[in-house]
Amino acid sequence: MAPLLPFMKVHTLFFGLYSWDVLTSLRLEWDLITRQRRFTLPMLFYLLNKYSFLGALIGGQIRLNGPDGVNCTAEYRASVFLGNISLGLSSINLAIRTVAIWGGNKTLVVVLGVLTVTHIGITIARSSIFFHAPQRFLSVFSDVHSLHAEYIPGRGCSPPVFSHSITNAILIYALCFDALVCGLNLYKLRLHARALLHPSKQTFLHITQLVLVQGLVYFVIAFFLNLSTILVLASNVKTTTFTTYIVVVEGLIAIVACRAVRSLANTLHTGTEVQ
After folding, report:
1. Out of 7, 41, 163, 171, which could bridge 143 as a Cys pair, Cβ 3.0 to 4.6 Å?
2. Nearest-CA neighbor of 253 among 230, 204, 231, 220?
3. How many contiguous H segments (helices) and E segments (strands) does the chain have?
4. Which CATH class is domain 4-268?
């Protein structure tokens, strides 16, 4: 059971890191509660993204440090579901930022909207165990249905065993989605390349630099995190190693996506809200 120890240590360490990020970013939530900021639809996706992954991590801590006899399979399925939702919402948040950068371009809204709905559909398919779907549907489309884990007395839950079929689809789709979003931001940055160097537009340039240049960093990080996960999965590593790695990657992507939303919201707070 030695492989379980690194998983426990990494999970606990990352739970602390993510909790710290949540606590240090509560100012936005407080502004929404006190109505210093207007609550908009993007804020809903932001909050769901942020706290769905926190819920997944809390579930992980219950599995590792909970009472004897905990239902490990149910706990893992709940955590996988929340992790999947968080990953999908991360892509949605990055897409919303892209729409804001492009000034609400209607064509772009439709294209990214369709891609987002498809992404959510794949995510729900992977987590369809939570819906009353037929057994045949579950066996074909849901690797969560095949997820099983056992309780180890005094050690917590063992790493899960499950098929990676739909996991591959989600990660590849997320990778392509992030690549498209990154490309759109690169193209927009190119359109503003000359304006960024123009000394007579400093007020506009301050916002443009933050939204485009800083935002592009978030998109590139998310893209390479998804790419690294696919490479790790393709290398046929042990289940413990992959489970540990994907927890960290999904958490980092959630942090990146939420920071992208916050940076844009803070930049536009003095003027126009994120619509």
Report:
1. 163
2. 220
3. 11, 2
4. mainly alpha
